[in-house]
Amino acid sequence: MPTPTALLTFSLVALAMVLTPGPNMIYLLSRSITQGPMAGLVSLGGVTLGFVVYMLSAAFGITAFMMAVPYAYDALRLAGAAYLLYLAWQALKPNGRSPLQVTKLNIDSPRKLFSMGFLTSLLNPKIAMLYLALLPQFIEPAHGSVLIQSIMFGLIQITVSVSVNAMIALAAGSIALFFGSRPTWLKLQRWVMGTVLAALAVRMAFEARRA
Fold it and tell me: Would you give the DSSP letter of residue 120?
């Protein structure tokens, strides 16, 4: 069984990841504002299924394979760093768009909402990096079954992410109104987030591979 410290630390990592604006947050905010909170929650169901796919893939060995093959790991690490740099540039460039500035979407059926949420989650590099690069660092074979530990950490990530994203979907209108009526806060959010993302990208790009 994982130690309480490892569980708490991973919970904080999962919280930090979900609070960093990314494809899932942007989609859920935009969908909830366009079509209402219920549509956002249906989309969140699809996002959650994507989390489950990543969790099971990690638990049954794909993570171990990626970590064991240097070129595969490095390609993923550099791709993740490049994506973070892209997000940072989108936030920091002149007249850049904040991730919290949502866009209007077409009205979709519940089935399409769920499917789009699922695809958004599967194609989210942030979640891929969490499961392929971060989760293995918390697993200790000496503490029991690697499979059980992987599932436990995965369930923590899913619980944290679903809880936060559900609140975002339900409060999407208020969030958009707050930032829409306070352009200074929106500009500050862009610069803070852009700087944080750039720092994470640099750290990820130069991070040494685990032995």
Answer: H
